[in-house]
Design brief:
This protein is an alpha/beta fold. It contains 15 helices and 21 strands. Strands 2-1-3-4-10-9-8-5-7-6 form a 10-stranded mixed β-sheet, sandwiched between helices. A 5-stranded parallel β-sheet has the order 13-12-11-14-15, sandwiched between helices. Helix 6 packs across helix 11. The longest helix is centred in the middle third of the chain and has 22 residues. It starts with a strand and ends in a 13-residue tail after the last strand. It binds xanthosine-5'-monophosphate (XMP). Xanthosine-5'-monophosphate binds next to loops. The site of xanthosine-5'-monophosphate has 17 residues, from loops.
């Protein structure tokens, strides 16, 4: 049984980061909404695996009446609790301290000092001061602050602007900080969370991918028994890792369906078939539905309409194939943990800007039970799992690719001729990104290519013609736009400052090698206000 840490989410933008940091410390952690209920928390703690609770930050103020509070049971389980920002304020207020609406809001970089020695922070320091206390560089983001301690607590961190920047009741193992240890700007943040889960909560570091593979394989075998499973393989990271994992567990009981809608990247179909069918020996049904999709898309120019058509057709083709696999009882999907957290917290934000279509959006009419073996994993864990299962690095670290594929990268009406030109241009861009070193390095100090240094990069087909000159002749051909962005969460993104030499080389190659394109432009719009895709 794994040690577990429960994170109560009070609505901070960075709650997921807390869970990721805890998992990076080798400890399983889960995020639940703060109002998940007393019974849930009691049941969660019942088998003894729950070792501590972390209260996230949040946008509200405890000084206002009807704002979130910590379920009382959190303070009654006898477990360590760490409050972060709003979590600290709620803890202080509920245990008898005082929180006031700060006149000055404090955002961004700050320095705090420890004011006493604690089991939690002793030895954690960016610099040690003459009096033996630690100086810590942290990230603050708050308006309210704690102005009086609850009974049993002492100040453990302070600076001028925030005299109670951290507090602790070491007897009850309750700790709280006003800043955010989960963000990388808090230099010792990792160390703080590490120390909390290991030294204060007593968790063992038993969450790691190689062990997880055998556990997950066993769990899948237990769950499906002798039944057959269908999986929609898209070539993306999640469905690929799910396929490899399920295949490891149940071999030939898994059939993958790979639908080629004619809007995939260059050689994608071949790559998927080579890797899964030939190398791994997975049963893959490859459906070439290009004509069907192109037929339905003919004459359609509205982006949302295109998405709907592609989504609908996809489901239809998939269902027709699935119906042929008559003994299947399960439908496997590559749902990952951030999707699970997000749908649990729906209603808070969740405004749809574009209707996203995923391979996952299949209807209930298939009458299949759902198998989602990646439900507990963050994206970086899915990648690690992929590597542990023997998938190649280039596949596991691939940029995300939208469900409607090139359909949203060909502006206006989709035609096969356009898709063919775009595929070639896109492949050249991606090849050059892979082959060009960036100045960035990984956390381990390894060099990163520009492909790794960007979060998503692709070419976009513009169905307009412009005049050019090649050799002695005048040309009148299509335009391709290059897009490369850097982002943490795809909600906001910066355009990547690719070197001019690299852009120049890509442009030259596309214009020389792709007959039908005579002009290449680079998209320098951030998100917002632009979106990452052009449609
Ligand atoms: P936007 O264009 O909204 O994209 O800034 C954000 C991220 O979502 C991807 N995206 C999609 N993914 N189906 C998907 O599966 C879609 O319809 C879709 N539209 C956008 C996009 O590639 C980017 O990673």
């Amino acid at each position: 049984m794994h040690s577990r840490i429960l994170i109560l989410d009070f609505g901070s933008q960075v709650t997921q980061l807390i869970a990721r940091r805890v998992r990076e410390a080798g400890v399983f952690s889960e995020v639940v909404p703060y109002d998940v209920g007393t019974d849930f928390i009691r049941d969660y703690a019942a088998d003894g695996s729950l070792k501590g609770i972390i209260l996230s930050g949040g946008p509200n103020s405890v000084t206002e009446g009807d704002t979130p509070r910590v379920p009382q049971i959190v303070f009654e389980l006898g477990l360590p609790v760490l409050g972060i920002c709003y979590g600290m304020q709620a803890m202080a207020e509920q245990l008898g301290g005082k929180v006031e609406n700060g006149k000055v809001r404090e955002f961004g970089y700050a320095e705090v000092q420890t004011t006493r020695h604690t089991r939690w922070l002793d030895g954690v320091a960016d610099a040690v001061l003459a009096n033996g206390m630690s100086l810590l560089k942290v990230w603050m983001s708050h308006g309210d602050k704690v102005t009086a301690l609850p009974q049993g607590f002492e100040v453990i961190l302070a600076n001028e602007a925030c005299p109670i920047a951290g507090m602790a009741d070491e007897t009850r193992k309750f700790y709280a900080v006003q800043f955010h240890p989960e963000v990388t700007h808090t230099v010792q943040g990792r160390a703080m969370l590490n120390r909390f889960v290991h030294d204060i909560c007593g968790c063992s570091a038993d969450w790691n991918m190689p062990d997880y593979v055998s556990e997950a394989v066993e769990a899948i075998r237990q769950k499906v028994g002798k039944d057959d499973v269908i999986l929609g393989l898209s070539g993306g990271v999640d469905s690929s890792v799910a396929a490899a994992l399920i295949h490891r567990a149940i071999g030939d009981q898994l059939t993958c369906v790979f639908v080629d809608h004619g809007l995939l990247r260059l050689n994608e179909g071949k790559m998927v078939m080579d890797m899964f069918a030939r190398n791994l020996g997975v049963k893959v049904v490859h459906v070439d539905a290009t004509e069907q999709f192109m037929g339905k898309l003919a004459g359609v120019t509205d982006p949302e309409e295109k998405r709907k058509i592609i989504g609908r057709e996809f489901v239809e083709v998939f269902q027709a194939e699935a119906a042929k696999i008559t003994n299947a009882k399960w439908l496997a999907q590559g749902t990952i943990y951030p999707d699970v957290i997000e749908s649990a917290g729906k209603g808070k934000k969740g405004q749809t800007i574009k209707s996203h279509h995923n391979v996952g959006g299949l209807p209930d009419t298939l009458n299949l039970k759902l198998l989602e073996p990646l439900r507990e994993l963050f994206k970086d864990e899915v990648r690690e799992l992929g590597l542990a299962l023997g998938l190649p690095r280039e596949m596991v670290y691939r940029h995300p690719f939208p469900g409607p594929g090139l359909g949203v990268r060909i502006l206006g009406e989709v035609k096969k001729e356009y898709a063919d030109l775009l595929r070639e241009a896109d492949a050249i861009f991606i090849e050059e990104l892979w082959n060009t070193p960036s100045p960035m390095t990984t956390e381990k100090g390894e060099p990163m290519s520009w492909y790794d240094a960007t979060s998503q990069a692709f070419a976009v087909f513009l169905p307009v013609k412009s005049v050019g000159v090649m050799g002695d002749g005048r040309t009148y051909e299509y335009v391709v736009a290059l897009r490369a962005v850097q982002t943490q969460d795809f909600m906001t993104a910066q355009w990547a400052h690719l070197p001019h030499e690299l852009l120049g080389k890509v442009s030259n190659r596309i214009i020389n090698e792709v007959r039908g394109i005579n002009r290449v432009v680079y998209d320098i719009s951030g998100k917002p206000p632009a979106t990452i895709e052009w449609e």
